[in-house]
Amino acid sequence: MEKNIAVIKGDGIGPEIVTEAMKVLDRVAEKFGHKFNYEQLLMGGCSIDANGVPLTEETVERCKAADAVLMGSIGGNTTTSPWYKLPADKRPEAGLLGLRKALGLFANLRPCLLFSQLSEACPLKAEIAAKGFDMLIMRELTGGLYFGARKTEEINGVMTAVDTLEYNENEIRRIAVKAFDVAMQRRKKVTSVDKANVLDSSRLWRKVVEEVAKDYPEVTLEHMLVDNAAMQLVKDPAQFDVMVTENMFGDILSDEASMITGSIGMLASASMNESSFGLYEPSGGSAPDIAGQNKANPIATILSAAMLLRYSFKMETEAGAVEAAVNKTLEAGFRTGDIMSDGMTLVSCSEMGTKISDNI
Ligand code: NAD
Hints:
Bound molecules: nicotinamide-adenine-dinucleotide
Low-confidence stretches: none
Strand content: 15-25%
Structural class: alpha/beta
């Protein structure tokens, strides 16, 4: 198969980690007889330096023309970088928000799994960590409280702020469909998280999710209130397969879930639209503290590339081969600095990429 991948290396460690993910994709192409064409594009701080704006129309158009987008991370040191002296809508992050919007990326997929080789980094009790977990949080990304109408005004001498949590049935249906589709590629269980005992938007959410579930008889659906979900994540994360939830709940729960894996450098993510198109990036940021030192952990970006193969290119075997190569490399004791422990072998970012690609 021949596929076109738009590549946004971005800022900080972005260029280092994306280079390693491309190394792995090239190995996949060689081994499985595919051809991946890359087009490198600017976005974020590097685009501000080159073009005066964090996102250009050209980058948007070239991304739209590609089959998928592979991204590193954008942004710099928020206290010292001149990018953060600019107005908010001209800063690096505005480029990413603008790109997600322009590409219609409404579903954020964050797999959270505990690698057995790294279970010591898990902050949960040893007996919980020993069970392991492998879940995916599907967060709605373009609706709800973060995008609803808001205002702050003085009413009868009292300052009053209002944020609106609004969802329509179409917005709920499309994210629910995405969650059930992904569950079909996994262990066929969906946990829908809401606050239906209080919120109207959650009651509509629950109703629409139940309607969608009828089209997926093989998938088990359960509903869970968000406060309980926050507790269950630390008590028994192994119970979850796919968790689907609205924007703000997903924002908070996905950070909680990534924390219990113990290592930000290992966590992949994808943002998708209604088709199979997606933007794939590590969960972490541009790590300016270690940028340019060949120290960053490229595994999150490599696993994001595996998600790209699975969800945008429908290359399940190839995605599995990348994940198996990551496991094999960890099993052999190789670690970047962020996941280093006694008795393991410290490797650089580029050495880690090479070891993983050699294991495919
Ligand atoms: P960060 O995730 O960049 O760094 C937090 C800590 O994690 C740092 O100590 C860093 O060294 C470490 N870390 C992160 N990724 C790592 C990796 N792959 N390997 C080894 N260590 C890693 O978060 P921050 O310092 O709060 O933010 C830095 C910049 O990144 C800011 O400008 C922020 O806005 C931006 N950011 C961008 C994205 C994105 O591109 N999607 C996401 C989050 C933050």
